[in-house]
Amino acid sequence: MANRLAKETSPYLLQHRDNPVDWYPWGEEAFEKARTEDKPIFLSIGYSACHWCHVMERESFEDDATAELMNAEFVSIKVDREERPDVDAIYMAAVQAMTGSGGWPMSVFMTPDARPFFTGTYFPSEPRSGMPSFTQLLNSLSEAYRSRRDEILDSSSKIVAHLVANNQAQSSETPLDRGLIERDMSDVLGRFDRENGGFGGAPKFPQPMVYEYLLRVWAAAGDDAILDMVSTTLTRMAKGGMYDQVGGGFHRYSVDPIWLVPHFEKMLYDNALLAPLYLHAYQATGDEFFKNVAIDVLEYVRREMLHPQGGFYSAQDADSEGVEGKYFVWESAEFANVLGEEIGVPAAAYWSATADGNFEGKNILWVPRDDSEVADGLGMSVDKLLEVIRTAREKLFEAREQRVKPGLDDKVLTSWNALMQRAFALAGAVLERPDYVKIAAGNATFLIENLRDGERILRTWKDDPDGGKAHLNGYLEDYSFQIESLISLYEATFDGQWLIEARTIADRMIDLFWDGDAGVFHDTGSDHEDLLVRPRNVFDNATPAGGSVAATALLKLALIFDDDEYRELAVRSLGSVRDLMEQTPLGLPGWLAAVDFHTGTPREVVVIGEPDSAETKSLLRAAHAKYMPNLVLAGAPDQVENPISPLLEARALVNGEPTAYVCENYVCQLPVTRPEALAGLLERS
Q1: What is the domain partition of the chain in residue ranges?
Q2: For 383-414, what is each residue's pLDDT tens digit?
Q3: Quick count: other Cβ atoms within 10 Å of Cβ 18?
Q4: Which residues contact 172 (CB under 8 A, 6 or more apart)?
Q5: What CATH code would you report for 603-684?
Q6: pTM of the predicted model, to two decimals?
Q7: Which residues contact 505 (CB under 8 A, 6 or more apart)?
């Protein structure tokens, strides 16, 4: 018989609906039961693509005896961290404070008023490696709650006090300046893995925002060592097993220092952040390899992660048929049978596929050697080798499509969708791909039509026979990411409706999330439910902090609309993390991007001309040709009587030809009508 989770929309919660555990979703019903029956709460937080979450479910939550103990002694709450990032952030901070580390599944034992007193992550069904079994832990904590209540209450009070103290804003009186960007990078260079790319050893995460920041440092200082760090890392990642060599798209992270063995889940947000990074690397270096990786990522998303109505799904699981990575790896015999000898031999050399394999007797495909080295060893040209590999990839993809696919987390999250929307908009503009722009515009329309409750943005949507259900009030990131994506969509289309929508969301974001006394944006709205603290995560982790994107988006809107209020709020919020940016730059790269925009000299490029004309397209091609992170684009077919932005005031065709204006603080150089002239102006600026 299904439990209470059967009524939820989260695929992760629905995975647990048939557990014998009497699960509750997060809400007052669970807390009221705990208070009434004077029981401690067991809070389990995870997500659908989490391998060890599945393991703990199989070992413990599907076990009748374990469930009977949980139901008798605890009130059990299951939370999808992706739907409730506020709950996840608060209790992850508690786990890290109490244990020194964190992860998922997250296991938290709490009092009926939600105060944690014991925390951890995965607990096995049998004692091992110094860990108690989960049932031993349940019995021990149940007995402690009954017989040593004072100790538990004292412990929980100390943890809550720690959480409150760590959540206070620490504003700095030191002004923001270029020194935060143009800093001594010797420490960063010293930690860089020059052979494999990335920082440190295992595990290695993609960290796209760190490399976006390093590209900005390179653009500001011109230090080729910085660009080499980015290029080396992006090349190694895309040639590693962390990248799906057959189907495109990046897995979550590498468990080793060489990018070979991944955690096999594919997350929408990773790919949404990596596609623009590879595009920016292409603009910075001109290397077609980076462009092709970006295209492969977007084609994977279009094929596997796009809902027919325009939303993007959240994740693909690491497991298929109950085995981690089974869908993605290849037995040597199967590899040879699919390809045959003529194609299979060079393909095996290229992807380093062997009889013994490199992962549990099977092969994770990767490209550890340069193309020229492989081609020389095979006695063929590089062009011929790559032609063979294209054919091999098609054959392997067709064969893999016959396998049982990993599970799909098909919920649609506003913030993650906005990240991917921006990726498609940017790629559409840079690569002149109207099909990509169409996908971005369709996603923007989908979010507006399906994830709103009046003026409120909603967090999550899932399809159902009645047309889909959206719920949960949006968080700061849902607002700020969407503002940023709509600005990018405007720059790809010059359709003013997207700027109007961005400004509307920005005003609502300020109303709900801005704390004028502290000078910060909180992650939850002012009318959000009361939690232990009002969360404000300032670190850019797997996704950017909502506050860092809010600062960047408001600075862009301030320039587009000449709005001093937006600029003032953005600068005040940057001041709240100024000292942290100086101390731990790689932990706050999104904030540093905002500082770069604020303290630099953003270039305003206005293109006037019919968008479909070859001459207008050539001007836009010149505007997108180079990496210029602080470029703001605006445009119109002809002079506009009531322009949506001051950038468009008094901008007109010159001699009836499409025309570009390069400006700074609304002061423009002489207009140009030729792409080479525009490129020259941008190069000099």
Answers
A1: 4-166, 207-320+409-599, 328-402, 603-684
A2: 999 999 999 999 999 999 999 999 999 999 99
A3: 13
A4: 575, 576, 578, 579
A5: 3.40.30
A6: 0.96
A7: 457, 479, 482, 483, 486
